[in-house]
Amino acid sequence: MVTPLDESGEPNLDQVDRLVAWFIEQGVDGLYILGSTGQWPLLNPDQRQAVAERVVRVAAGRIPVMVHVGAVATGDAVALARHAERIGADAVSCVGPIYFPARADVVFEHYRQIGAASELPLFVYHLSLVNQLTLGAAQYAERLLELPRIAGMKFTDRDLYQFGLIHSHAPGLVLFSGADEVMCQAALCGAVGAIGTFYNVWPAACRRAREAFVAGSFETGRDFMLAFQTAIAEVLESKSMWSFLRAAIRHKSGIDVGPARAPLGLLERPWSPADVERIVAQVDGWMPDAG
User: Fold this and answer.
1) Would you call 154 a catalytic residue per the annotation?
2) Which of 71, 129, 150, 274 is within CB 3.0–4.6 Å of 77 for a Cys-Cys bond?
3) With the CA atoms of 220, 222, 224 and 227 taken in that order, what torsion angle do they form, in degrees rounded to the nearest 10?
4) Who's near 183: CB < 8 A, 6+ residues apart?
5) Quick one: which of 70, 28, 80 has its CA closest to 50?
6) Which of 32, 111, 125, 140 is catalytic?
7) Closest CA to 126 of 83, 90, 159
8) Helix (H) or strand (E) holding 177
9) Could you read off the pLDDT of 72-87 as tens digits, one per residue?
10) Whole-number Å distance between alpha carbons of 132 and 101
11) Is 252 among the residues known to form the active site?
């Protein structure tokens, strides 16, 4: 879930309320909040806690809420995990250590302390852009299974080979695909669901296309993914993803999630209403029962 911000870069809690309600109306199966798309590195702990509290309050048990609590400092992540438990979140997730180099033992101790901080299920967030582990899949899975409260993983990488191997070595882990570009393909590797950026714009279409694919409609999955991948590629190649997300979400829902917090979004070009409408329609037009 994107984190709605006002023009000064502060969390816009009224728009948080509206966005959560809209996602529930769209039939999403759950919310993953304050992750990369939620701009967590640019928000301080108090701001993250305020957003988490509002999301959980509005969700009110109607859909599960997984809170990303990863932080540069392990102590901050531990505090955020404890806060997520206090407010009634359903699970926590955390990215590995970032910026400073960390050997494998340090990475898993970081995870261990976060998992031990609450009684909530823990989902490790494997983000290929910052991942510091060079372990083989068997050893990776073995060490994940040793973590307290480990329930699964959000695996964000376009290369699904290791995804499938981890599933083979630890079939009990609940695995979510984190790369939107391979949403349906990841289901073949053991993904039970998908968590990603562009589902903010196309929650219903993506859910229904994935459901159809898992139910056996290869053609639906193929045709949808080709349209979805093409739309994602156009947005990413524009170097103006954040302005697109704002414009597209407003086009779909009437909700203004605000600008990205600098440096994100700096020097991005505005999108014309015609281009936004064209890209949005390109994906929505491939819903399984669309004409």
Assistant:
1) yes
2) 71
3) -150
4) 177, 194, 196, 206, 209, 210, 225, 228
5) 80
6) 125
7) 159
8) strand 174-177
9) 999 999 999 999 999 9
10) 7
11) no
* Catalytic residue (choose from 111, 154, 199, 252): 154
Quick one: which H or E segment has residue 156?
strand 150-156
Neighbours of 104 (CB within 10 A): 15
Compute φ and ψ for 176, nearest 5 degrees: -110, 135
Cα separation of 112 and 18, whole Å? 35
Distance (Å, rounded) from C-alpha 277 to C-alpha 291? 18
User: What's the token pair of residue 123?
Assistant: 């989902």
pLDDT for residue 126 = 94
**Residue-wise pLDDT tens digits, 14-61:** 999 999 999 999 999 999 999 999 999 999 999 999 999 999 999 999
Cα separation, 32 vs 95, in Å, equals: 13
| C-alpha distances out from residue 38 to 42, 159, 197, Å | 9, 23, 9
How many Å is the Cα radius of gyration of the chain?
18
In terms of residues, how long is the chain? 291
